[in-house]
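User: Sequence recovery, please. Input:
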C-alpha cells in the first residue's frame, strides 16, 4: 500500500489555552496530507482546479486518540482507502514522534465541475491519475 507521510510543525496558533491542538486543525493537516499524497504520485490538485474542477469533502470521520500539543511534530500518513467511479475515500493516521496514534480519520471526496457542481469521474479528467488511485487503493469501492 502506498502511504504518503508529511511532518507537521505544531504552531502556537493551532492550540488552545492548555497548549493542546484545537480539533479543527486536524482537518487542515488532513488536507496537507492529501495534497502531499497527490504530489508524491506526480499529480497536482492545483491543475485540477485550473482545469475547472474541485474535489469537495462529502463525508468525514475522525477519531481522536491522544492529544497533540504545542511543540510536537506529528506526522500525517495518508493513503487511498477506496476509489470508485465517482468517490474516493482517503485514510489518515496522525502519529506522534514516538509512533503513538494521535488520531485516525477518513474523508470521502467527489470531483465536480466548478461551474455547475456536477460530479465527474476522475477517469474522464485524468485517466492516468484514476489508474494510479485504482492501483494503490487499499480496497475496492
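Assistant: Recovered sequence (141 residues):
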Amino acid at each position: 500500500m502506498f502511504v504518503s507521510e508529511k511532518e507537521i510543525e505544531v504552531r502556537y496558533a493551532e492550540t488552545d489555552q492548555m497548549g493542546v491542538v484545537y480539533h479543527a486543525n486536524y482537518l487542515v493537516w488532513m488536507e496537507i496530507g492529501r495534497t502531499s499524497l497527490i504530489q508524491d504520485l506526480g499529480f497536482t490538485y492545483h491543475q485540477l482546479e485550473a482545469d475547472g474542477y474541485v474535489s469537495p469533502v462529502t463525508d468525514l470521520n475522525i477519531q481522536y486518540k491522544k492529544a497533540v500539543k504545542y511543540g510536537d511534530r506529528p506526522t500525517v500518513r495518508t493513503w487511498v482507502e477506496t476509489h470508485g467511479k465517482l468517490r474516493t475515500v482517503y485514510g489518515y493516521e496522525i502519529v506522534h514522534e514516538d509512533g503513538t496514534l494521535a488520531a485516525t480519520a477518513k474523508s470521502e471526496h467527489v470531483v465536480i465541475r466548478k461551474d455547475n457542481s456536477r460530479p465527474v469521474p476522475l477517469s474522464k479528467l485524468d485517466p492516468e491519475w484514476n489508474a494510479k488511485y485504482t492501483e494503490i487503493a487499499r480496497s475496492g469501492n
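Strands lie at 4-7, 53-54, 57-64, 75-83, 87-95, 101-110, 112-113.
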